[in-house]
Amino acid sequence: MTTTESTQPVISEESLAVWNGRLTIRVKVAGAGPPLLYLHPAAGLAWDPFLTQMAEHYTVYAPEFPGTSVGNPYAIHAVDSLPDVVLIYEEVVRTLGLTAPVVVGQSFGGMLAAELAATFPTLPSALVLLDPIGLWREDMPVANWLTTPPDQLPALLFHNPANEAAQAMLAMPDDPDEAAAATAGMVWSMGATGKFAWPIPDRGLRRRLHRIAVPVLVVWGREDSLIPVGYVDEWQAELPDSRAVVIDDCGHIPQVEQTGETVAAVTEFLGQPRKVAP
């Protein structure tokens, strides 16, 4: 199927009590097949065509980061540190009963996916990182998305913000009050996730990447304005078993701006799983 032909899956939601009952994590679930855990970027979870296509062959589990769920913004106050975040996500995986899921992470979610796989090397079966944050070189600074005004984010995230898929992702409600609430929610979500991302140079992920024990695919948009494409080499230099795909005419969110190329790269890397009958 092409992206436009894919049928929107039935998406259900589970609420998991974790962290000794201090947190309730909402998880979107769709599809059928082997488990795939998707960790979303800083602005929160959006079910995009990439996830729809992954759900054709996998059961996709997409947890919402604490503080990014609608109606529960203050959940972030129950989380104190990045190591706690990693433990919470491992607890989510155990509570869901997932065995060796494929783990896919985008941007901030890519950093979390790498941290999770480095801390728990036997947890994933494979790792897919889509333009992940987490590494730093002084001569290739990462843009500070936290201080970027909302009206300038499209140019930071997309090579071509006028792209139809990008416009669909960026679309705001027509109602002014709803649009204001959506903007405020996005800003809050980036603050909740940003608490564990900045300052990137001080997090030490580079020292832990050698612990990852599964194959890794790194996918990058060649024109990424948020994280330079030069970081592909930095990731591969630290990962024991990795391959990389750089997608042309593409910014920071390849699964939205170049969905077909991203799905093709991920599918080739993972192979075609056997679909589980309902």
What does this structure look like?
This protein has 9 helices and 8 strands. The protein has 278 residues and is of the alpha/beta class. It has one domain (12-270): Rossmann fold, CATH 3.40.50. The chain has an 8-stranded mixed sheet with strand order 1-2-4-3-5-6-7-8, with helices on both faces. α2 crosses α3 (108-119). The protein starts with 11 loop residues before the first strand and ends in an 8-residue tail after the last helix.
Number of helices: 9
Shape annotation: globular
Uncertain ranges: 274-278
What fraction of residues sit in β-strands? 15-25%
Instruction: Summarize the helix and strand pattern as letters.
Output: EEEHEHEHEHHHEHEHH
Helix content: 25-40%
CATH superfamily: Alpha/Beta hydrolase fold, catalytic domain
Find the structural class using helix and strand composition.
Answer: alpha/beta
- The strand order across the widest sheet is 1-2-4-3-5-6-7-8
Number of individual domains: 1
CATH class: Alpha Beta
CATH topology: Rossmann fold
| Main sheet summary | 8 strands, mixed
Give the strand tally. 8
End-to-end Cα distance: 20 Å
Return Rg in Å: 17 Å
Query: Which architecture name does CATH use?
Result: 3-Layer(aba) Sandwich
- Average of per-residue pLDDT values: 91
